[in-house]
Amino acid sequence: MNREIPRIGVYVCHCGMNIAPQVDVEQVAGFAGRLEHVVVARDYKFMCSNPGQELIEDDIKAHNLNRVVVASCSPRMHEATFRKACQKAGLSPYNFQMANIREQASWVTADSGRATAKAKDLVAAAVRRVAFHHPLQTRQVEVNKSVLVIGGGIAGIQAAISAADAGYKVYLVEREPSIGGHMAKFDKTFPTLDCAACIMTPKTVIAGQHENIELLTYCEVVGLEGFVGNYKARILKKPRYVDEDKCTGCGTCMEKCPTRKIPSGFEENLTFRPAIYSPFPQAVPKTPVIDADNCRLLAKNKRCGVCAKFCEADAIDFNQEPRHLEITVGAVIVATGFSAFDPSPMVQYGYGLYPEVYTSLQFERLNNATGPTAGRILMKDGRVPRKVAIIHCVGSRDKNHLPYCSRVCCMYSLKFSHLVREKTGAEVWSFYIDMRSPGKLYEEFYNRVQAEGVHLVRGKVAMVTDIVDQPGSGNLTVVAENTLTGRNLRLPVDMVILSVGLQPARGAEEVARMTGISTDGDGWFTELHAKLAPVNTPTAGIFLAGCCQGPKDIPDTVAQAMAAAGQATALLAKGTVETQAEISSIDPDTCSGCRSCLEVCPYNAIYFDEGRRVAVVNDALCQGCGSCAATCPSSAAAVAQFNDRQVMAEIDAILA
Amino acid sequence: MDASFEPKIIALVCNWCTYTAADLAGTSRLKYPANVRLVRLMCTGMIDVKYVIKAFLEGADGVFIGGCHPGDCHYINGNLKARKRIRSVGSILENFGFDPGRLTLQWIGASEGPEFARHMTEFVDTIKKLGPNPIKTRMIL
Fold it and tell me: What is the C-alpha to C-alpha distance for residues A555 and A258, in angstroms, rounded to an integer?
């Protein structure tokens, strides 16, 4: 096959008006026609269209082509399309090469002549290279029919339920003692004002009871290796000090625990919890955990064990140790969510300094029937506020903090406005930069809240101070500019709510590293394609759901979770995956047995055959990174489709 | 410096980060000089030093290597191996009379389209200042 004389067809795409006229496609096709081994060269309006693909297929048959080059867009876009067209006409899909003259020439080059010259070079490189292509072998390997979901917020819960309903085993890993994530803290949800618990609790219960879902709470994924269809995850099971099988969730231990003054994270530090705790009453699972850092017995080595004494089920076990579990899954859904922006660095807003300045999450708890005030909006002194200010874009759309719009804050601020008006009748002043209410029924909700008599002021708040202009009018003063009237404003208020933005979850970086997902400049996980592959990642079998990919509201999160589950289950349903062809091999006739490759292989995919004294690639483990090829002093190691002759041919042609 | 000098630059870039950033620069219609020709590789870790030497011997005025940020490598640590190799080849080039500034290694992540365009513009500028590859005007080997 290597010896056959190349007969190459070259197809230059106009991509409508995207490549032509900036690149003179006729000239490029004419140039390609004169290159060595090129039998036919054409230009066509849309190569990816059906007639475009048929053009290739017909030419392969009519001209007996054995190599094809398409000069069009990025191979990340249409390489699969054209490979399939080659295959349909009986040609190996690997006897194909793309020249990217759209993303790399027409779209980025101001001068048309230079764009055309660059396109010619790229086509020449592809033609020279494809002559050295040859058919490659792949294998079908079985897919493990289970899914790992990392993160137990609404995204992870929904993804787990969807995948489990499709009949697949799901491991749902959550680092906190219970599932629910941020949504479990909310009171109402915009724009419908559904009670968050009413729509969330059924989901957590289903996830907890589903026969196909194994909840791994108070666990963290600490390692992930393998490849699509066969991932091995290492999971750290942190000690709960409570036996999950014995515990009945009666809650006596929590009542009796003598250590009671630990700020409750679930309650956003508005109240306290004991050392043995369950984050909230409806938590799934109900099994509490002992906070080892604050437990009298575990942390301070004092005589206590009160919880154990009162536990009728004998479930307390102070001797639990961290354990590591290993599971094998076919697909992974990453749903690690977000963390709320901490407004402490924005000292002008007085968070942490003035007791009546709250973050939005704290206000959610203040509103929540299960929260510290049983859902009554009260100040710390127990009074009902008469005037409340809400400050939008705290952290968001701010070059010093989060440059992006956090998308949900305008809407939840409107929700807060409504709730304050409804529950207290207080005057509400909401300070916004731009009001953003895109979404089904969102604009309508905005109009409704406006009609409820909320003061909406366009302007960023300069500061919140406790310097009160008129005694008795409020304990805080909000200083702002109303940019619509051009007037400065000093507004006395009783309470300030900071609508903080969203940022990637704590630990997102480690998750990205472990799963091989790249992050954007702000730390959000990057999807494979912004529009056409929003839940996929560059690594096959790893999918994204929810806020880990960027700020989004609950409807979008749930939609994305279902999409990720759909993608994952489609992969599992297929049953097998084709191994990648672009992997390394070592020519035993050239290998000198120096073993340099064994040292650089990141996958331990190379072993040394003592009998033949040569290095051998295990093709089930090799990922095709080419570390061995670049290291091999005798050029015995090579990655298929990226071997020396192919890469050198490309360089040669460009510089010819 | 010859104002009309238009260098030819080979860019060896990894599929996952820098190539994707180049695609993003394209999709965002960012303009940058047309002097750079991308050669797509799966990982910078597969760049054999002979590709770099070959490019210079064939007359490339500059060689740009673009990979994932440390820690972001799709293959765990190929980019770090590349960094080690590129450092060593840099010193070899100097011995043969090539300015080491003609070779650069940069980390450009998949979402960094504007950074890709900026790096291209800056590197073309650097090479323009260095002038044509000396191999075109005098014997080196």
Answer: 42
* Nearest to A46, CA basis, from A78, A10, A80, A16: A16
Chain segment A534-563, per-residue pLDDT in tens: 999 988 999 999 999 999 999 999 999 999
Give bridge partners of residue B14 from the DSSP assignment.
B41
- What type of residue is A119? A
Strand order from edge to edge, sheet including A67-72: A38-44, A8-13, A67-72, A96-100
Size of the A and B interface in Cβ pairs below 8 Å: 142
Distances (CA, A) of A25 to A71, A220, A410, B36: 9, 54, 48, 20
CATH architecture of the domain A341-503 equals 3-Layer(bba) Sandwich (3.50)
Lowest-confidence region among A170-174, A307-311, A510-514: A510-514
Residues of A within 8 A of B54 (CB-CB) are 648, 651
Alpha-carbon torsion, ordered A507, A513, A514, A517, to 10 deg = 100
| CA-wise closest residue to A349 among A186, A454, A480, A459 | A480
CA A82 to chain centre: 30
Extents of the domains making up chain B: 9-136
Torsion over CA of A641, A644, A646 and A647, rounded to 10 degrees? 100
Q: What is the largest CA-CA distance in chain A?
A: 95
**Residue labelled with tokens 């089930």:** A620
Taking Cα atoms as reference points, which of A284, A287, A282, A306 lies closest to residue A249? Answer: A287
The domain spans of chain A are 8-130, 146-238+324-337+505-574, 240-320, 341-503, 584-640
The ipTM of this complex is: 0.96
User: Distance between CA atoms of B114 and B108, rounded to whole angstroms?
Assistant: 10
3-state secondary structure of A454: coil
**Span A103-121, average pLDDT:** 97
Please check whether residue A109 is in contact with residue B31, taking contact to mean a CB–CB distance below 8 angstroms: yes
For helices A112-130 and A644-655, angle between their N-to-C axes, nearest 10 degrees: 150
State how far Cα A216 lies from the chain centre. Answer: 20
Report the residue of B4, B35, B48 to disrupt the A interface, i.e. the one with the largest count of A CBs within 10 Å: B48
Burial of A5 from C-beta contacts in 10 A (0-12 / 13-18 / 19+): exposed
Q: Which fold has domain B9-136?
A: Rossmann fold (3.40.50)
* CATH architecture observed for domain A8-130: 3-Layer(aba) Sandwich (3.40)
Structure tokens at A365: 């708890």
Residues of B numbered 52-91 whose beta carbons fall under 8 angstroms of chain A's beta carbons: which are they?
54-55, 58-60, 68, 71-72, 74-78, 81-82, 85
* Identity of the residue numbered A176: E
Distance CA A505, CA A174 (A): 13
Domains A8-130 and A146-238+324-337+505-574 share a fold: no
Determine which of A75-79, A94-98, A497-501 has the lowest per-residue pLDDT on average. Answer: A75-79
Residue A461 has pLDDT above 60, yes or no: yes
Domain A146-238+324-337+505-574 has CATH 3.40.50.300: no
Question: Residue B135: CB partners within 8 Å, gap ≥ 6?
Answer: B56, B57, B59
CATH 3.30.70.20 fits A584-640, yes or no: yes
Q: Which residue of B has its CA nearest to A654?
A: B37
